[in-house]
Write a structure and sequence with these properties.
Elements lengths: L4 E5 L4 H12 L3 E6 L13 E4 L5 H7 L5 E4 L7 H6 L2 H20 L4 E7 L29 H20 L2 E7 L2 E2 L12 H11 L4 E6 L5 E2 L2 E2 H13 L6 E3 L5 E2 H12 L3 E6 L14 H7 L7 H17 L1
Parallel strand pairs: 1-2, 1-4, 2-3, 4-5, 5-6, 6-11, 7-10, 8-13
Antiparallel strand pairs: 9-12
The chain binds nicotinamide-adenine-dinucleotide (NAD).
Nicotinamide-adenine-dinucleotide (NAD) binds next to helix 1, helix 4 and strand 5.
């Protein structure tokens, strides 16, 4: 993708900023839109920067004016602590952002709209065991997402499908599985497990102790940001308009994740368990059969290499 006029919403956030940078470096015109900007993200990574609240209809019309491709990543979201606690605000804000962005993209005749859905749409009853069977795209129904955030994502997937059917808007829909890497939220309550564990280990004394949420046996898979950006652009350029997983299919327990980070740190850190803390579904993994079929590709960066870069970046932030 080059020489396109691209809008990235949520460009002040983690995935949005990395994606904007890649698109900008490839020679596209990139309009970066967000409601707020974090000063730890390295500039330049956009052609134009607009601070807009995308819950407001007029702002979505403004953002999508003279744009070919929309990457709609803006969302009120956070890690398991945040999305377990906050329901109404998350659903309210995200349904407004997404409904307005779809309609504004239709009115302003954008060529394509990319929507960032989530592995959180998958039903709870398929994720009750740490040795979970990896989730295929078709497993989404009958629906029973674990949290309100997931229900809103599932609703917007359907809404995107309706815009394709009724108005011919070309949509691309991804279900990201736990994306991690440098320049993501790492403190404040919205951070996700890899960033939270990197921060805890970076802040721990040596020898020291960190707290693990739950019993540590819950499992997930983690995809490094460079793979996420690559897959995102490939999916946007493809002809595939159904939801597609982008994630790693290497299952790891939270304990295992913490152990890798502790090893990277070189510290002598022990783990203690907080059984009252939120931990989400018991196990979740990505089935990449469809991904391989559609994009002839799957994530490449190993968890050890990705976590090393993430830990070093977070250690740097902690020291600052
Ligand atoms: N990171 C993951 O593991 C993951 C997994 C599944 C899905 N996703 C989805 O990918 C997208 C990007 O996620 P991220 O990890 O970069 O999150 P993030 O929180 O870092 O980025 C989201 C950005 O949206 C912005 N935003 C929120 N409300 C807004 C509003 N009203 N107007 C304009 N901007 C607003 C935020 O300020 C933030 O910068 C989100 O839609 C998220 O739901 C992420």
């Amino acid at each position: 993708m080059e020489s396109k006029r691209v809008l990235v919403t949520g460009a002040g956030g983690f995935i949005g900023s990395h994606l904007s940078r890649e698109l900008y470096q490839k020679g596209n015109f990139v309009r970066a839109v967000d409601i707020k900007w974090d000063n730890y993200i390295e500039e330049p990574y956009y052609s134009e920067k607009d601070t807009l609240d995308l819950r407001v209809w007029e702002n979505c019309i403004k953002a999508t004016k003279d744009i070919d491709y929309v990457f709609n990543l803006a969302a009120n979201m956070g890690g398991i602590g945040f999305i377990t606690e906050v329901g109404a605000e998350v659903m309210h804000d995200n349904v407004l952002i997404n409904a307005h962005m779809l309609q504004a993209s239709h009115i302003n005749k954008v060529e394509r709209l990319f929507y960032s859905s989530s592995a959180c749409i998958y039903p709870t009853y398929r994720q009750t065991d740490p040795n979970v069977t990896a989730l295929k795209e078709d497993d989404a129904y009958p629906a029973d997402p674990d949290n309100f955030y997931g229900w809103e994502k599932l609703f917007t997937e359907k809404m995107a499908e309706a815009y394709k059917k009724d108005y011919g808007l070309e949509v691309r829909i991804v279900r990201y599985h736990n994306i991690y890497g440098p320049e993501g939220t790492w403190k404040g309550g919205r951070e996700k497990s890899p960033a939270a564990l990197c921060r805890k280990v970076a802040e721990a004394s040596n020898p020291g102790v960190i707290e693990i949420w739950g019993d540590g046996k819950q499992t997930r898979s983690y995809c490094y940001i460079d793979d996420c950006v690559k897959g995102t652009i490939m999916l946007m350029e493809s002809d595939y308009d159904k939801p597609l997983n982008i994630g790693s299919d290497r299952l790891v327990s939270i304990d295992g994740l913490a152990d890798i980070i502790i090893k990277i740190s070189g510290k002598n850190v022990k783990k203690k368990y907080n059984l009252l803390a939120p931990q989400g579904v018991r196990g979740r993994n990505s089935d990449n059969t469809k991904l391989r079929e559609v994009l002839k590709w799957e994530p490449q960066v190993s968890l050890e290499n990705g976590l090393k870069k993430t830990y070093e970046w977070i250690l740097d932030q902690v020291r600052k």
